Amino acid sequence: MGADVVIATPGRLISHISLGNVDLSKVSFFILDEADRMLDMGFSEDIKTIAAKLPKTCQTIMFSATMPEKIEELAKTLLKNPVEIKLAVSKPAEKIKQEAYVCYETQKMTIIKDIFKAGDLKRVIVFSGSKFKVKQLAASLQQIGVNCGAMHSDLEQAERDDVMFKFKSGQYDVLVATDIVARGIDIDD
């Protein structure tokens, strides 16, 4: 019994390879989605380890939102006769207001609470760097009466869909999410 498609983090795939659960001898395509994020998380050596075990005929495809030097170096290592496709950089819709505040870590929670206390904010997305901080911030906002939902990697897909539905439909005024989740959010208005 086999699979037509295997989706895994590099570390988990290497674990299954070492346990003998995965045979890579017939792999046709090796696709690296969000390659820049994987390198940021330290998966460079794992990716190279997996690539070394693939058949020579395997085609490698990389998707990356950015092309820093690390990605270009990885591409040179993994790709044969690569073709680079660049998409136009999209900008946020004109209705979207973006703000950034420079502050110390110890000031963040107070500033965020003050922002929400000061105005009637609707349809706000707050991005945070970790699921722990997402949970902490969502709980703090709920304590001051902000109607918000949290989206992070601990949620099952059905729970993520529910949070997103509630935000899109206006049941939540605020969505607090990890930056990884940020790439997949698509809201029409």
UniProtKB/TrEMBL annotation:
Q: Known InterPro entries for this protein?
A: DEAD/DEAH_box_helicase_dom, DEAD/DEAH_RhlB, DEAD_box_RNA_helicase, Helicase_ATP-bd, Helicase_C-like, P-loop_NTPase, RNA-helicase_DEAD-box_CS
Q: Which residue range or ranges hold the Helicase C-terminal domain? A: 111-189
Gene3D superfamilies noted in UniProt:
P-loop containing nucleotide triphosphate hydrolases (3.40.50.300)
- Identify the GO cellular component terms for this protein: cytosol
The Swiss-Prot or TrEMBL record annotates one GO molecular function as: hydrolase activity
- Enumerate the CDD domains for this protein: DEADc, SF2_C_DEAD
Keywords, comma-separated and alphabetical: ATP-binding, Helicase, Hydrolase, Nucleotide-binding
Known SMART domains for this protein? HELICc
Pfam families membership: DEAD, Helicase_C
From the Swiss-Prot or TrEMBL record, give the protein name.
Answer: ATP-dependent RNA helicase RhlE
